[in-house]
Fold:
Amino acid sequence: MIFGRRYFEEIFTKEDPWRYFSCEYEKGKYVRQIEAVKQYALHPQNILEIGCAEGAHTLMLARAFPEASILGIDISKTAVKRAKENCKCCQNVNIIEADIIELFKQAHFPENTFDVIIQSELLYYLFPELFIQLELIHYLMSITKIMKNNGIFVTSNQLNVRTRPALGTCYFILQRLCRLVQNSEYKEWYDIRCKYLTYDLKVFTKTK
Ligand SMILES: C[S@@+](CC[C@H](N)C(=O)[O-])C[C@H]1O[C@@H](n2cnc3c(N)ncnc32)[C@H](O)[C@@H]1O
Structure:
């Protein structure tokens, strides 16, 4: 794996490597994702955050949705240790160290479990290997399966020459292939499809 465990452990030798706790730009991005969840998922009970890093976004989700149970997953042991510490004040947060690809291969989560799956700044890290092995399709189908009906998949990713083609492919496959899963269809919400200058924000809803 190009961006595997070792790669991220190396990054997390530095605390808050992407300045998720201090950077206004990052905070703004989280706020917009939370607004999207509030707009499209009524009273979410179960939220899965894939690639939660040190828990900056997790903490904001926990406060925005105190009634929901939030599960954060990250491949980095160091990040997970810090995320647990950063979120220890929140009773509704659980954080585990795991490779999401492996969890999906093991069908770790029961079907129809999550109202919201949120994944910020991760698709393009997963993409190269997923694409080569055609595991991207399996990955996106797993997301669809573990989502409840009317559940939403929220993803926000920085846009640049490297990430644009990868993201375009991911979104295309998500729209086309996920309808094969459980007769579900994906509805993309065009009104928040608007492009911010440096990142996009997409919400896909699973409908029967
Ligand atoms: C660029 S950071 C984004 C963090 C967070 N989502 C945010 O936007 O603030 C990507 C995170 O995904 C995690 N990650 C990368 N590959 C993963 C995998 N296969 N399974 C779980 N987490 C992964 C990394 O350890 C890192 O914390």
Q: What stands out?
A: Strands lie at 46-50, 69-74, 93-97, 114-120, 147-158, 185-188, 199-207.
